[in-house]
């Protein structure tokens, strides 16, 4: 079974599950009984690994739904103190 799409001028897109290769050129709309012509669209084929698909989906989503940034990315780290070469001052508290 395959999912086919038909376009009704009044009700929009209608989906129908029919045997592969058995979809007619038009279908009667179940809402208004007008003829709905068949749409040709790409099949829903998943390619690549799941990580690649997630990256592609996030990239596509960012075009229309950008994420709101409230802080700079990355983790804030306090500045590291270099150890003193003088052993007398090595254990003093940091300013």
Question: Residue share in helices?
Answer: 10-25%
Quaternary assembly: single chain
For the residues shown, what is the average pLDDT?
82
Global Rg: 30 Å
Helices, by number, come to 1
- Class by alpha and beta content: alpha+beta
Low-pLDDT stretches are none
In the sheet with the most strands, the strands line up as 2-1-4-3
Give me the strand/helix succession. Answer: EEEEH
Morphology: rod-shaped
Protein name: Putative regulatory protein FmdB zinc ribbon domain-containing protein
Region (Disordered): 71-95
Domain Putative regulatory protein FmdB zinc ribbon: 1-41
InterPro entries: Regulatory_FmdB_Zinc_ribbon
Secondary structure topology:
Blueprint: E1 2-8, E2 12-18, E3 26-28, E4 35-39, H1 50-64
Question: What key attributes describe this structure?
Answer:
95 residues; alpha+beta; four-stranded antiparallel beta sheet; 1 helix; 4 strands; 16% helix; rod-shaped; Putative regulatory protein FmdB zinc ribbon domain-containing protein; Regulatory_FmdB_Zinc_ribbon
Describe the structure.
This protein is an alpha+beta fold and 95 residues long. It has a domain at 1-63. It is built from one helix and four strands. The protein has one helix at 50-64; strands spanning 2-8, 12-18, 26-28, 35-39. Strands 2-1-4-3 form a four-stranded antiparallel β-sheet, with no helix packed on it. A hairpin with a 3-residue loop joins strand 1 and strand 2 (12-18). It is rod-shaped. The model has no long low-confidence stretch (mean pLDDT 82).
């Amino acid at each position: 079974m395959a999912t086919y799409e038909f376009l009704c001028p009044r009700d929009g897109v209608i989906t129908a599950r029919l045997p592969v290769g058995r979809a007619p050129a038009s279908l009667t709309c179940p809402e208004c009984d007008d003829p709905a012509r068949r749409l040709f669209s790409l099949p829903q084929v998943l390619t690549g690994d799941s990580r690649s698909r997630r990256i592609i989906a996030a990239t596509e989503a960012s075009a229309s739904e950008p994420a709101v940034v409230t802080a700079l990315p990355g983790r804030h780290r306090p500045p590291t103190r270099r150890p003193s070469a003088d052993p007398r001052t090595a254990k003093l508290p940091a300013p």
